[in-house]
Amino acid sequence: MKNFRPLLLEDLQVESAGLEVLRLCVNQHLPEAEWVRTHRHDFSQCLFYLSGHGVQQVEGTNHSVSAGSLITVTAGTSHAFEKRSERDPLCLVVDFRLLAKTQQVPHVSTRLHGQDVTLIRQRLSWLMLKNDRNHDVALQAREAATLLDVTGILLGHALGTVGNKTAIPVSEKIQSIIRKRDLSCLRLADLIGQSGLQKDHLNRVLKEESGLTLNQMLDEYRLEKAKIFLSDQERQVQQVGALIGFIDGNYFARWFRKQTGQSPGQWRKLHH
Hints:
Layout: E1 4-16, E2 19-29, E3 35-39, E4 44-51, E5 54-58, E6 61-65, E7 69-73, E8 79-83, E9 90-98, E10 108-111, H1 114-129, H2 137-159, H3 170-180, H4 188-195, H5 199-210, H6 214-230, H7 237-243, H8 249-260, H9 264-271
Antiparallel strand pairs: 1-2, 2-9, 3-8, 4-7, 4-9, 5-6, 5-8, 7-10
């Protein structure tokens, strides 16, 4: 089964300073695909998540990933992925080889913040919007430079030659607050107040860092908790709604259907 569709696919043979970049692609996981089965390659990979949540498994070790997560997978290493949110993950994949036989990229699980995330998004936007003029040598040169720049940022973090910013991203702070608070009484105004930013500015920052607005981030966690509560057959649907902040049971049912395409009762029956 094919688990994702490529939004950008560049088959390359770009070499520079002992590095060969084979391919760069941006994959969007399909809604019906909950996982990518265990597999391995004869080349190394950088997996950089632009949006979504899930678990990346590398040689039996699970790594929780979300927007900004970087996983490097060494050639020959088995790895798999399981989706953990309704939002379909968007992943930048760079296939590469280090030409020096004595050099190897270590397996790394880390996060990119601030300027590097912004740079990668800008480079990808240009690649996805550029005109396809194969005869234009200048465009080809710029494309190759852009691809190497993106790969260089990712490998810099993987090899530890680029230091992560010490400041915690706003999106990470907000997610931490959401997960620590009681959803039954949590309001958007509370989150905005604790961020120290105006609502519009906060949403712009969150969108840039994670691809989600404040509302979407809160809805994503509410849905995650709703499914956990619905799995308990003893809980009534209206009670589940109240636990995640919906006093009106009918409104909760409409919201849940909008998120999943199913009513809470239908979802419970299908997943019991």
